[in-house]
Amino acid sequence: MTATRILKHLKKFPGQGLFFPRHSSLFLSGFSDADWAGCLDSRRSISSKFFFLGNSLISWRTKKQLIVSRSSSEAEYRALGAATCELQWLLYLLHDLHVTTVKLPVLYCDNQSALHIAANPVFHERTKTS
Fold this sequence. Notes:
Layout: H1 2-12, E1 28-35, E2 46-53, E3 56-64, H2 72-96, E4 106-109, H3 112-119, H4 121-126
Parallel strand pairs: 1-4
Antiparallel strand pairs: 1-2, 2-3
Helix pairs in contact: 2-3
C-alpha cells in the first residue's frame, strides 16, 4: 500500500520530510476506501482516507471501524462518511488560515453502491447505517 511505503520512507529518512511544490495549484481532493471485515479477530472493517492539497499529501489515516458492517457497501459508506467529515474539517482549517482553493473539493470512492447510497435519498433511507 502506498501509505505504508510513505511511512517507511519517512522513518528511514527523517530529515527529508514531505515536499510541497511552490507552484502546485490549490485544490483539495480526497480518497476513501474500506476493507470489509479486514480484521480477522473482530471482523470489523478497516477504513482508509488520504487527502491532497494540489499534488501534495497533507493527511492520511487508516483505522478500524467501530461497528461490524454487514456488507462491503456498508463498510465503504461508513468510510465515505468519515472521509467527508475530515474533508469538511480540512476546509474549515484552510478557511481559518485564509487559504482559498481554486475549485471545489473532490472526494473519490471506488464502491459504486456506496456512491449510489450517498447520492440518492431513497437508497439512504433503506440502509441500516443511518
